[in-house]
Each structure stands twice: as structure tokens, then as C-alpha cells.
Amino acid sequence: MRLQVDGAHVQIDPDPEDTLVDVLRDELGSTAVRVGCRNGDCGTCTALVDGQCVKTCLVLAGRAEGARVETLASLGTETNPHPVQEAFLAEYAFQCGFCLPGMILSAVTLLADTPSPSDAEIRNALSGNLCRCTGYVNAVRAVRRAAAAR
Ligand code: FES
Ligand code: FES
């Protein structure tokens, strides 16, 4: 089956039980999606699939035939970060970074649809992403900062 991942066209041959996160990490070597709970709770496996935030541990790889998948790696680089990444850095909104793929992609998706979100909307958008380090105050502040910078 064919996929587009972070702009590259790839061909894969997944086992029927492989999830999309398995393929992204194990076959394609992406470290910009992470495996946590594998049951849809933590959000660290989040990627954009055809523009929508998706927990890739919940998607069988075979169901993603032809999809356009964007991971955190497609957003920015260390020297040229995406504005939401800059905002998370500026607000010290992470420590270990394990939750960042989901946090940042959820924020990017929110701001694409809702450029000036309320705190309640930000909290709702981040609610599928668990962070065991920082709590959520700084993450909310980071999304607020990214919205103000647009
Ligand atoms: S690994 Fe997918 S939601 Fe936790
Ligand atoms: S920064 Fe460590 S889990 Fe969020």
C-alpha cells in the first residue's frame, strides 16, 4: 500500500494487525510519533492524517491506504521551528518532551480552525494528551502565545 508521510511517498506492506504507529516507527523509522499506552489515552502517537489529528495507535495501518500523514517532523526544524513549537519553548511547556507530538499537533489543529481560542477551547483541544511532567498550565499559556503571535 502507498502512503505519503511528511511529504515523502512511501510503499509499505504491513501485517494485518499492524497499527499506523507501528508502521511509522518500525518500518519508516519515524521518532516523531511515540508509543505510550497503545489504547488511545495518552495521545503521544498523534499524527495528522489527511489534516485531522489522529491517535495512530488506534488505526490499523491497512486503513490508511493512500492517506497523507504528517508527523511532528513535518512542522519545523531545530533551527526553524514552527510558531507553536517556538511558543512551547518560550513558555517552558514541556520537560521530557514525550507528550509533545500530541500536544503540538493538537494545538496546530486547534489554531487552524480557531485562531483565537478561549482557554476552555485550548484545554479541550489538549485534553486528549497526557503530560506526566509539567501539568497543563504552561501548555495552555503556550497555545495562547502562539495564537497571539499569528
Ligand atoms: S499510544 Fe496512542 S494514545 Fe497512547
Ligand atoms: S513533558 Fe514529559 S510527558 Fe509531557
TrEMBL record:
Keyword Iron-sulfur: yes
Pfam family, one: Fer2
Domain 2Fe-2S ferredoxin-type: 1-75
Keyword Transmembrane: no
SUPFAM superfamilies for this protein: 2Fe-2S ferredoxin-like, CO dehydrogenase ISP C-domain like
InterPro entries per the UniProt record, alphabetical: 2Fe-2S-bd, 2Fe-2S-bd_dom_sf, 2Fe-2S_ferredoxin-like_sf, 2Fe-2S_ferredoxin-type, 2Fe2S_fd_BS, Beta-grasp_dom_sf, Diverse_Oxidoreductases
Keyword terms of this UniProt record: 2Fe-2S, Iron, Iron-sulfur, Metal-binding, Oxidoreductase
PANTHER family recorded: OXIDOREDUCTASE WITH IRON-SULFUR SUBUNIT
Protein's name in the database: (2Fe-2S)-binding protein
Source species taxonomy: Bacteria, Bacillati, Actinomycetota, Actinomycetes, Pseudonocardiales
